[in-house]
Amino acid sequence: MHPMLKPALRRAWRGRHTVQFGVTPAHAVTFGPLDIATGSFLDLLDGTRGPQLLREEARALDLSDRHVETLVARLSAAGLVDDPRAGGPEAEALRNRTGAMDRLRPDLASLSVVQPEPGGGLRRLAARRAMRVQVRGAGRVGAAVAALLSGSGVGRVEVLDGGRVEQWDVAPGGLPASTVGERRDTAARQLVRRSAPAGLPRTDEVGCGPASAEPGVSLIVVAPRDGLAVYAPDVAVAEPWITSGTPHLYAGVVEATGMVGPLVLPGGTACAGCLDLGRADRDPQWTRMLSQWRSGRREAVQACDLGLAATVAGLAAAHALSFLDGELPTSTGTRWETALPLLDWRAERIAAHDGCSCHAGVHTERKRTPGVGAARDTMAG
User: Domain 131-362, what architecture?
Assistant: First the structure.
């Protein structure tokens, strides 16, 4: 191990004997007590020294081997230590692709903050290469989500949509003006390729023959151009995902209202059917109105301005990446919603319905740990 204090966390002395790593309450850690020599030793934890060299330089500061071992162990337990050489063979392969790593360095820094174990950030960044995500929709929201996921290192991002690109599909970070008139799926595929970090092989172009099995879908992001399909998802469309156990996340904009969620874990959290049944219970006229909204061909352009579309796409991509990295983001079983002009975000918990065929209502949902509201203390007794 070549211990390195996580460079993404800014360091500041809170007093003569206490250091705070990190600025924001969500990830800050206070560490101490530290004497002058130990404080100086912290500067040596930069990832360039192995255990033997660290012990030798520590002795020059009158610090014992035992003191160094205890200090590094405490820093590691506090989630403050990274190891630039850790992460396993997949991480090593990614580390050797210099061009791609330069693009992904901010993403790696972010993962190092939220993943406590040494090498955890690079391990999870490398794991994204094996992920396969489908984005259903190539409008202002869906195309941007696909680009963000591809640019974040997800190995295979597929975009499903029909028709041809219209002028109002164009958006910064999404489909460019040059694609107007092209097939939406083709234009989105090109966008995904352009967004991917240079130097990384496309996972759908690696391997051949019967031994190369196509990976399963890790997540479906449902981001249709018509935001009504997010506000009131079609139960029949979602049924195959429930049957196959495929997680799916809804995201979109309808009538100047942006929505992210729910993230549906089939059989574990509320699904489109639960949402529909719950609304029908609360409003006897819901089914009647929904059938009218869905009927007929709608010619009007969607009320989806660029700022709101970009906001929804960014939040949806962040939630998707959090899930792919092994976490349960707050959109799990919950819809986040905001509307112009005030943009006040609110969360609506979607209850699993006992009458839904997904059977999520009979399971106990996993409880999430609330966010930390203040810097954690890691002080010696």
Answer: 3-Layer(aba) Sandwich (3.40)
